[in-house]
Amino acid sequence: MEINRKLIGQKVREARSTKGLSQATLAEEIDMSVPYISHIEKARKQASLKALIRIADVLGVTVDMLLSGNQANDPLECHYELAKIMESCNSYEKRFIYEFAKLAKDFIRKNCESNLFR
Q1: Which tens digits make up the pLDDT trace of 52-103?
Q2: Neighbours of 16 (CB within 10 A)
Q3: Burial, 20: exposed, middle or buried (Cβ in 10 Å; 0-12, 13-18, 19+)?
Q4: What is the mean pLDDT of the chain?
Q5: Cβ–Cβ contacts within 10 Å for residue 41, how many?
Q6: pLDDT at 78 (0 to 100)
Q7: In the chain, what's the furthest Cα-to-Cα distance?
């Protein structure tokens, strides 16, 4: 199985930006170099487990969030992305998005025989 370094890098960059940290600040906090952080974010290097744990701790996220989407049959795939979308929604918007997602799922399942969505 291939690790999707690009996806991990995007999640690190997004979490770092959300937290308002520069690469230099993150690097300093985890005792790594700025180029190392840059290489992780640009998928030029694969972060070590130790580095991912340190990064997650400083950014206030879980390692699961950083790795989400890399595991086959991940039950939480897209969970964090959906939670981020929903966090600023009011009750009506959340219900609307939920109902729309159910309809979309049913449509995809009914039409998957045509391989239209695969």
Answers
A1: 999 999 999 999 889 887 766 666 667 777 888 898 999 999 999 999 999 9
A2: 20
A3: exposed
A4: 88
A5: 22
A6: 74
A7: 52
Burial of 11 (0-12, 13-18, 19+ CB in 10 A): buried
* Count of beta carbons in the 10 Å neighbourhood of residue 23: 18
- Chain position carrying tokens 């995809």: 108
Q: What angle do CA 20, 31, 61 make, to 5 degrees?
A: 45
C-alpha dihedral over 106, 107, 110, 111, to 10 degrees?
A: -150
Angstrom CA distances, 12 to 15, 16, 62, 112, 118, stand at: 5, 6, 11, 33, 28
